[in-house]
Write a structure and sequence with these properties.
The chain is an alpha+beta fold. Among the domains are: 46 residues, Arc Repressor Mutant, subunit A, CATH 1.10.10; 81 residues, Alpha-Beta Plaits (2-Layer Sandwich), CATH 3.30.70. The chain has 5 helices and 4 strands; from the N terminus they run αααβαββαβ. A hairpin with a 6-residue loop joins β2 and β3. α2 crosses α3.
């Protein structure tokens, strides 16, 4: 499903599910102003078209003993296909790695790693990360404070407004009527 194919109802469904994936279909339908059957059909279509990738439960890291969040920059010796594939395969197997991005700039990869303590980080770096062939440099930075953490995508950011609808009172001068601009 392309971005342009998502209408306002689809966006409302997605926003509601991002806020609470445990909503029953009946509750979701009421929240987005649909009857249950069409709501379920839309959710199934969003799943089928991979707009909804999966449903997860978010845990509090401190509550489960994982209080250290670290960002690690990795530079490879060479940016060749074999080294990239080996690194990415090794990272996929590591549960401590929450996110991994291939980057532009100074580092080749940026990882977000969550561990219990500094000793666990040391073991991860020495026993796991440093053992991956082809790594030239490992630089880590500790997160001191989580200022913002969000899992819900900003569905309205940068998206065109649905066609065929204009806000009430929207006129030709940026949402103001001609009388208001005089």
């Amino acid at each position: 499903m392309l971005r342009a194919e998502l209408d306002e109802i689809d966006r409302r469904i997605l926003q509601a599910l991002q806020e609470d994936a445990k909503l029953t279909n009946v509750a979701l339908a009421a929240k987005v102003h649909l009857s249950p059957s069409p709501c379920l059909a839309r959710v199934r279509a969003l799943e089928r078209n991979k707009v909804i990738g999966r449903y997860v439960t978010l845990l509090d890291p401190l509550a489960v003993g994982l209080g250290v969040s670290v960002f690690i920059q990795i530079t490879l010796e060479k940016q060749v296909k074999k080294a990239i594939e080996a690194f990415e395969a090794a990272i996929q197997r590591r549960p401590e790695v929450m996110e991994c991005y291939l980057m532009t700039g100074d580092a080749d990869y940026l990882l977000r790693v969550v561990v219990a303590d500094v000793q666990a980080l040391e073991r991860f770096i020495l026993d796991q990360l440093a053992q991956i062939p082809g790594i030239a440099n490992i630089r880590s930075s500790f997160a001191l404070k989580e200022v913002k953490y969000q899992t819900a995508l900003p569905l309205s950011a940068g998206l065109p407004e649905p066609t065929g609808r204009r806000r009430a009172g929207a006129g030709p001068a940026g949402g103001r009527s001609a009388q208001q601009t005089r």
